[in-house]
Amino acid sequence: MKFYSTNNKQIQVSLREAVLRGIADDGGLFMPDEIPKLPESFFHHLEKYSFQEIGFEVAKLFIDDINEADLRAIVNNAISFPAPLVQLSKNISILELFHGPTLAFKDFGANFLANLLVHYLKNEKKETLILVATSGDTGSAVANGFYEKEGIKVALLYPSGKVSKTQEQQLTTLGKNIFAFEINGVFDDCQRLVKKTFHDPDLKNIFSMTSANSINIARLLPQTFYYFEAYKQVKDKSHPFIVSVPSGNFGNLTAGLIAQAMGLPVHKFIAAVNTNDVFLNYLQSGKFEPKASVATLSNAMDVGNPSNFARIISFFGNDVDLVREKIISSSFNDEQTLSAIKEVKENYHYTIDPHGAVGYLALKKYFQDTIQESVNGVIFETAHPAKFSEIVEKVLAEKTSIPERLSVCFGKQKVSVKTNKDFVSFKEALVQTIS
Ligand SMILES: *Cc1c(COP(=O)(O)O)cnc(C)c1O
User: Would you put residue 136 in left (φ > 0), alpha (ψ -120 to 50) or beta?
Assistant: First the structure.
């Protein structure tokens, strides 16, 4: 299997290269050259497969340069927590994607990427330095994936004072091979420093460096697994299967499109967005016009220029009508999000987080806009409500329960290296800290 650059289909590389490079030299994102089909027998026996076995059956169709035993180990290590489907009503279920170490779906992709990279790099002589600029969630998911992995050090760069208290605790309390750098600047400064570090000749001598950013293809592939896992748990499969995906950079939704092309019978994807609605505008007008992002309560979806848009249009050969056949979209503001959190609690006794709440609203709108029929409507609950306890508690006037894996890091001492945002200061701090 080869992977092409969305900027130029002629540029084709192996998965190993795509994973190590992260982004193509021409700035494009990597996509599988063809989407393999799962055999019909897979769907007939789906209920018999464990989540990990599903992951292996899917992964082996994309990954042909790793032997079976190693690939099984990679998948099993990465898919080490469940994704249960919780039924709210006849037509609505919730796929809980927050059972990983950092309580968000990004744990699946980050864990898989980490395990795959460790495999590809195991014969490297130099130590590997993973650099991640983070505005909060991505950094801790990636750090957890690489935690205690031999021969690997992780440098997390985050903007000082610009991440939530919870996020900061998650970023700065792991220790061991994880190093947090608190940059006196904004997220864009962190990204710029990461890029400069990659090209620095001194650092290149010491380390083999790679980035684990969100556009890495190894983060996308494992996100297809839980679409199959959701379908597996649907009881009456004769009804249309509809998935509402709270979306920001559209990685989750892109993975769904791949799962569908592999044979998963998804009737419709709903791209649920907050007021950052460039994708909805694209479906309506046919024009993609990136905007500056706007801050909302579902902040992981505050994206004005979704990075995976390039993958979606390349997947559909730039034909907006084809996109419209598969995906619908609707947008909701903060006020509606808050009411939805309340409504889900009152109607279904379920505590949903602000991102899932947007997914709920979009599914409900779909029900209102289409002929009522029996459907299997699935909302992706992308984060645990405890990650957004300030918001959820204000609406529900009750305490959210904090899972132990989160409360543990609150008890630990924050360790970070504070530096200025110029490259000279950062480089000095980096070298001193990790070598
Ligand atoms: C990252 C994130 C999203 C958005 O996912 P994309 O794949 O970027 O569309 C939604 N919800 C939560 C909680 C997230 O962390």
Answer: left
